[in-house]
Predict the 3D structure of the following.
Amino acid sequence: MLRSWTIGLLTACALAGPALAQATKDTLIVDLPGDVATMDPHVQWDTESYSVYRNIFDNLVTRDTAGKIVPQVATAWRYTDPTTIVFDLRTDITFSDGSKLTPADVVFSIKRITNPAFRSPQLSQFDQIIAADVTGPAQVTLRTKSPYPVLLAQLVKLSIVPQAVVEKLGDQAFNQQVLGSGPYVLKSWQRGVASTLEANPGYWRGATPFKTVTFRAVPDIATRIADVRTGRADITRGLSPDDTAPLKNERNLQVLSVATERVTHLFLNPAIGPTRDKRVRQAIAHAIDRDAIIAALMLGFPKRADVMLTEAAFGWVGDVPFWPYDPARAKALVKEAGAEGAEIPFLTSPAYDRRVNEAVQQMLGEVGLKVSFVMVDQPTFLRRRQGTPEEALNMAQGRWSCACQDADGVIFPLFRTGSQWAKFSNAEFDTAVDAARVTLDEKERLTHYRRAFTILRDEVAAVPLFQDAAIYLARRELKWTPTPNEAFFVFDMKWVP
Amino acid sequence: MIRLLAGRLLQAAVASFGVLTIVFFVMRLSGDPTLLLVPEGASAEQVAQLRAALGFDRPLVVQYAAYLGDLLRLDLGESLVQRAPVAGIVGERIPYTLALAGGALLVALGIGIPAGILMAVHRGGLLERALAALVLAGQSLPTFWSGILLILFFGVYLGWLPTSGADSPASLIMPAIALGALTMSTFARMARISVLDELSRDYVTAARARGLSVWAAVSRHVLRNAAIPVVTIAALEIGNLLAGAVIVETVFAWPGIGQLAIQSIQARDFLVVQTVVLFVSSVYIAMNLLADLAYAAIDPRIRGRS
């Protein structure tokens, strides 16, 4: 018994070795931290699902590697009035079952995701669209509730699904066996284990770099790193800066990183307690040594953020510098406000970097403010942070991304009076962000956002800390440049032995 | 015996119902998943709209009644995150967890019992000390750490075993060892104590006086008597193996229900969590029932009493 068991195991090990070595020639193996929630691109949009299904579908428009919105299914677009936009479409795109991608499919996709009965969690990104019509053999026209400058940025996330197939299969079956016009075709999806995509041989943008791509769900980062080190996987994501330190001398590996559109910041509540006093908020801004946090805790990976937006997004302004690190000034301000020894309750959840919170606690302690943490689970955190000013407490860490790369998706929900996140209220700020929301003139929008960011800085509505870094570990042969929106297009990768 | 069985089955049903009810309400105490599903910038109205569409705006009691009604019709519902039937989602994972628990039990029994017996028979010797060190290691190393050590040594350094996944028989070896280590130690300690206890009894002294060797006495007389507490522990340990699988499955990317439970709890995918808990508690209850029955089968005194 023991002998046959041993022989069986040794054989299995021996077989596993060469199979892996060969697999990397045509097959790209990607370790993701989790499983795909849905393959249907109109349902979930978590990073894992997004990383996989975006390779199966084409979108109306997309972003190039520099972040510019460029044509994909649409070849060109023009506004006929501030609420009406006309898209000209390609006529040479086919879905992987051979059927043609038509304007009717585009309209169907928009109506499907915006239909409240479909219950798409993504609805809020598209609900400004009130009409979508086929207006020519290769043309669709969309109408929005009001002039909506973020429309194109939102459409970057809208995948085009084949109307005939979805209607024939029904939503649940389509989710199991999705079919699109993208570079890859879903071959198999074993929930919780892996999804395998195969190259779409007739893809209109040309040949794909790998015949097969397998996405595996590997939750533990140490295991994902071990997978890439042994060649069991070719690339993985979700490394922390600390994870990269022991990998520096590995000749077969490379660490890829990019500053994302996500800004880690400290929310300050101007509606309650000690932070109601602007001098206390200013003191907090002066007390935090952001460069030290980036260098010591983040090993230099993230980029310092001066405003609550990154260069990757529209509306970013580079000429509104934040308050400098000046602990002496911070101490003086705390004293002036009579807040020495004041208690600052800080709301947090395990989703936020504890070390950053503790560094902030220490830095504020040094200028005379006493931070105390209130740790809750993430859904409770979100509920309280969006609740009353008392529930939200005086401080919290935030890591905001609207996935739309536009200031409107960041500072409007966070600071506009009446938004459920906003505890800050400033009429001048409201006027600026309202005006920027209803004009299509980019220059004018930028002027409004410059004003808005200046007010946020002067009133210290938040302390922007840094632009989060997305860190990937890949085999040395993989050539790829990650992008700030954390898109994972296999089509843009190459294998160079 | 039939009355005993019927009574235990009724107890099991009540216990399952209790577990279900507790999980249903505890999961909902800290809120529903709507906020985790929508984009961060969604307005309060948009959040409320999705909450209503998902049915979380109804009173908890109404949701509970609807859930029980579906359950009576054997409808486990649809995952609100994955938009697929829960029965399928959980069902696909069960074979993996059973394979892992089976492998771990094999490690635990295969190493733990012989180690325990050897420790008892060689009490005070070098072999006992060496085995005691092994048992202590199995008992004290947390699985999330021992798992990573195994991966680094056998997967990365030696390259003998796959570092993650479940795509070959070899993939089972490390997770089974990591998961089985603690149970192995429990078995070893229990077997040692039971065998030592039996070895000090008069019937063993009598057998030895008749000229029987220690090993003959152990194999012919002691093991059967020493087995009773070990069988009870074994049944309970299967439940612990399912619980321990949560960590091991995460470390080794083993796609069982433990990993599914973690993902579903994080995503607040209520129906999936409830079904996983229903399954694990049923197994736990069934194992206890089996232990009682096995106990009766091994020990005639218990059979007589029941």
Remarks:
- The first helix of chain B runs from residue 2 to 29.
- The radius of gyration of chain B is 24 Å.
